[in-house]
Design goal:
4 helices, single chain, Nuclear Transport Factor 2, Chain: A, 6-stranded mixed beta sheet, alpha+beta, 36% helix
């Protein structure tokens, strides 16, 4: 019985540490797949660099959510796939392809670790060159 409890505690500890160590929150990928600025806003830092098709600036979380919502409204998402990702120290990133009804976009998303969770500090969305 003690062995089962020890295994259970070890498993829970491992799972918890794995979730904390995620450099790319899974919810960000889900939000891009849904085209949901509201869900994406959960992972935005208080200030971030946002660039959407040559319109860029350092904006707060609320303005970024509004700009992303406008983008997703104009570009209905069909799919999103992560093509490349990486981690270095307290930072991580991914590069993905966002397919909409009319265009394909390249998405670069950069994260910083802030208070034990990774938050987005930069998003860049550009038309894909294919």
């Amino acid at each position: 019985m003690e062995k089962k409890i020890l295994l259970l505690i070890t498993g829970l500890l491992f799972t918890t540490l794995t979730v904390w160590a995620q450099a790319k929150p899974v919810g960000v990928i889900v939000a891009f797949k849904k085209g949901s600025a509201t869900e994406l806003s959960t992972y935005l830092g208080d200030k971030l660099d946002l660039s959407i098709q040559n319109r860029s600036g350092n904006v707060d979380k609320q303005k970024a959510t509004t700009m992303l919502d406008a983008f997703f409204t104009q570009n209905k998402v069909k799919s999103f796939n992560v093509n490349h990702e990486g981690t270095k120290g307290e930072s991580s990133f991914f590069i993905g392809t966002l397919v909409t009804e009319t265009e394909k976009f390249r998405v670069n998303c950069f994260f910083k670790r802030i208070q034990n969770k990774y938050l987005i500090h930069q998003i860049r969305i550009d038309k894909a060159n294919e």
